[in-house]
Amino acid sequence: MNGWLIYRKEDAEKNKTFIDWLQTEAEALGIELELVIYHELTYGIQDRRLFIDWKGQDYPDFVMMRAIDPLLSQQFELLGIRVYNDSRVATIANDKAQTHQLFASYGIPMVDTYFIKKAELMEYSFCFPIIVKAVNGRSGNQVHMLDSLADLPPLTSERYIVQSLAIPGKDLRVFAMGGKVIGSVLRESDSDFRANYTLGGKATLYPLSSSEQELVDKIISILPADFIGIDFVFDKQGGLLFNEIEDIVGSRTLTSLTDINIAKLYLEHILKSAR
């Protein structure tokens, strides 16, 4: 099998260790996995047909999409090429408003969440403190905790969600692959309301209770995906509140705490599901 591993250039440089790991495991499994830099791709319509071009190469058997572009993912799918994760997951998971809208419609517990355009934000009255998030933010970026709108920094996106504050500095990431949980990590920070590992939070393994497992299974059934992170915050009673889906999920926390071979597991999942 031949696959394309698609990254934006700056992300490929930051994730070189993971890319090398994936390619090493791919070779061991008899898979040719080529790193494709996103900006080197061209796609659209030529002679009334959909096309994707990368250095004139033949199309791959599958694509590991590690660059956010749901339209490109859909283009591959329309050409009959399997994409991991697929375009529906990419569309919903990379828009926090769409994510909350979808899961709230199934009764998944979450904090109060408002969908607001940048131009309208100053017109609202809120019960502070609040969390303001750009709908397309990732890894804790473009997330602000405010005690008043006077504290609002310059906004660079057009659409935001505004949420009431859960327990700050503490969240749970559940890693799911092929519809099954492969690990859960509690992330905590003493210095930031965000508990992201990349922002200095500490991480420990977290065993899910039976009721927490049921909640995770329900979320997985609503948005089937190949490899995602499901993030939760906690209410005052310690219950889980859905926070977001991470489409291009990083696995540093899980691999630092366990001997789980994420790269091999993901490629074995691809081999199984692509047949």
UniProtKB/TrEMBL annotation:
The answer on whether this UniProt entry bears the keyword ATP-binding reads yes
A GO-annotated cellular component: cytoplasm
- Cite a single GO MF annotation: metal ion binding
| Superkingdom, taxonomy of origin | Bacteria
Q: Determine if Nucleotide-binding is one of this entry's keywords.
A: yes
Tell me where in this chain the ATP-grasp domain is found.
100-271
GO biological process terms, alphabetically, are:
SOS response
Question: What's a Pfam family this protein contains?
Answer: RimK
Gene3D superfamilies according to UniProt: 3.40.50.20, ATP-grasp fold, B domain
Q: Which keywords annotate this record?
A: ATP-binding, Nucleotide-binding
Q: What is this protein called?
A: ATP-grasp domain-containing protein
What organism is recorded for this protein?
Answer: Gracilibacillus thailandensis
Its taxonomic path starts at: Bacteria, Bacillati, Bacillota, Bacilli, Bacillales
